[in-house]
Please model this.
Amino acid sequence: MKIDRRCFLSLAGGLVVGHLLSPVPWKMTDDIAIWTQNWPWTPVPEDGPVSWKETVCTLCPGGCGVKVRTIKDRVVKIEGKEDHPVNRGSLCPLGYASIQYLYGPSRVKTPMKRTGERGDGEFEPIGWDEAITEVNRKLAALRENGKSHKAACIAGDDRGTVPYLFKRFLEAYGSPNFIRTPSGRDAHETAAYLAQGKTALNVGFDLENATYILSFGCGLLDGCGAPGYQFAAYSRFGEDHTLVQVESRLSNTAARAGKWLPAKPGTESALALGMASVIIDKGLYDRNFIDNHAFGFEDFTDDNGNMHMGFRSLAAEYRPDKVAEITGLDARQIESVAVEFARSDKPVALCGYYESRITADIDKTLAVHALNALVGNINQAGGMFVFPEPEYDLPAVSKDSIASDATGKPRADLAGSGQYPQSRYLLNLLPERILEAGNDDLPVEALLVLDANPVYTLEDSKKVQEAFEKIPFIVSFSSFMDETAKMADIILPDHHFLEGYRDVPAPDGVGMPVVSLSEPVVDPQYDTRNAGDTIIDIAQEMGGDIGKSFPWDDYGDFLEKALSDRYQDMSSNGYVVNRDRVADVADAFETDSGKYEFHPIRRHTPNNGDTEKLPGYREVGIPGGNLNNGVTLVAYKSPRIASGAVANPPFMTKTIDSKTLKEDKLFIQINPETAGNLNLKQGDKAVIETPAGTATVRIDLFEGIMPGLAAMPAGLGHTAYSRFIAGKGVNVNALLRAVPDPAYGMNTAWGIRAQLKKA
Amino acid sequence: MSTQTDNTSNAPSDEPAPKKGATGWVILAFFVIGFGFSMLSGWVGFPNLLYKEVPHPIDFNHDLHMDFVHDGCNSCHYFREDGSFAGSPTLNECRDCHMFVQGDDPNEIKFVEEYVLEDKEVPWNIYAKQPDCVYFSHAPHVRGADMDCATCHGDIGESTSLRPYQENRLTGYSRDIWGWNMSRLGEPKYAPRMKMMDCVHCHVDETDSKGSCFQCHK
Model:
């Protein structure tokens, strides 16, 4: 028998055929597929009992109710709470992704002390006792040197009990400098003060019941304001509902609106007055309201015998054809929208909170409020409401001589000063003030930062950064290593909202006086403490009258006492709506006339050439106005990008389309016509230069934006947090610069002139 | 155009052609050897290599317990209030009766001493454990379609001792999922199999549809 090559080939053939007829290849294919799913580095959530708990999201001022799915002790899913009056089951992408912040690497896990140069982000962990002692040592030294008024607190909000505790601390310590970060609320508050005589309020719009929403540039469906509230209201829109969007760019909101009026940016107040003139001309205004609840509609003579222009005469100056010229819209369209608005069942006009840019244009806000007054929807279902703040029945602050002396001291941000007597907070002016001052004459020498990230969110980031570098002592209460926390000397980390208690009053712009209670869903993951507890500890350790002003065991004890009878309802329902506090129209006004003042002559303090504060239109001189051949850079809000104090988590960044952010490259939108003039094509690399800064961007051609403008999304270009968040795109705030309102000091610049060149 | 080549091929040859290599029978024998080896190793050796027998932490007598409970399987393998299925019972369920050793069964003694008194959960072997990519809810099957537990889990409720548990060395899941018969032909040995096609067959029979991918692979 001869064995040759063919025998071995045959053997191999037999092996292969036998192998194929055995279970080995088929079973192995299946098992290997399953094996790859069980690699030890593949995260697999632990199994266990499932439960749903309810709380309130506090990552933006929206205050949406959420329900949280936990498996054993781990949060695995967040959804909108169906029966929460604010969002009714809706939730924005940041809310859905907020779980990533609970476990993500951006958390500050323990109190930290700076070891490197300021801003380097080098910290060492320290114990709570040591950290609080260190803060107290610095604050006590400042106070002993008679500089208590040079302490300040920057807070993201001034409502609710935690900011209240910080305000109370400064009052007892002896500083007038509690400063809220700028927002659309500034303008609404001022307008409500001027026209309705009310202070310290939330102005809300009842979008749930309104049938005709006339939005002056509000990103209602772009994630501005209280996104959950707006999404929920829009989702219930029927055929008898209309949304009209005034905006120079085809935003999400504009695309979904029944009508889109692409007015030139900054001309909205002229448009509002133009519509008012049509409504008055055609006699479509609410006569009952104007006759019984309005002052200054007709021309009038004051006590000194001086004649003043009434709203009718003012509006008459804004005929549709003139407004058409200012806004670039069609006069007939202005007229038809005005008529529809006035004739509809429940019309409401709004601006402010929901805008992509933090501007506080008092003129525009007054004009929009006046439109609401014209149709008589103040304190009416589907209209505009002014809500009183929740009151706390607490013992008065115990003040020693230093604290009493500080009451009259000027504020570091000039709010309430001779220059801006009627403004409450002017954080936008503070960086400049710090930079102008000498090192021994700084307006702020110790700064507490609560729920805010001014180093990122304020315009002209470079200047803000320089100003923060000059502040001798900064304490951050941030849960995350954000840009401001990175600049701090001490970080006293707060809980994530899923770990602690907090009351969440009246979300921005929401048309009902709701206060919700955020409750812990999981145990604190790290060595963090509620900011309320921390400030109580600091005060008690300081002792004296400051300690006496904080007679509570802890924040929980304080919260229960502060909310008193509301606490029970809040802790069982998760919220309380103070419907009985909504006054009817007669109670809406605390002006001298007891009426809506179209001409707020008695309230407005003539200031800086602004002798009569009337709703009006004036061109805002935006920065870099003398630049020729350039574009005007505007920021826009995307529902997929969180642009506030909290950066968008990686889950959200994943949802951004590749024409907005591709890898780390940011695109700016320009009209093809603008691109033609500048010799730019889709995807081109370009450099944009404004008076505030320079950035490299990519070009996205977009027919939906007005020629001459360049739109950049707000909320990208973070430099802190973690490597998964930082370095994505460009921070538009670094390219913008604020222009203060001459009488009120708030930022009115809606854009900035820029040079855009191919790189 | 080589004349030499033409000459060679046309040259007459007196010798018979030499025998070229092995005969067909030998070649076939080699094929059979190879085939037989693969078949034998694949059907006999491979399962022994792939699966390992894992001892149970303690033995359990389902039959005995069925006499003491009022609600059949549901007494210990119950639905939580939210409708989710609790799966294997934890000590919380056992503790009520097994706070102290009852009788002299070594498994009972081990259970109480090593687990109940130590407050340590029993690491039961789960025959029906599925990978994470498989979403399965008991509620629509047991409550909605009124199915018996035995339809999928076999008659384990009547067993007096836990049947052997074999673990797939590669995937870590029970041999019951694929079925004890490697060919997946014939009746399953212990309990119905639980691969995807097993779900599909039942769904086609009962609902005329195998359902959508997303129903189970969420």
User: Anything to note?
Assistant: The two ends of chain B are 73 Å apart (CA to CA). Residues 1-9 of chain B have pLDDT under 50 and may be disordered.
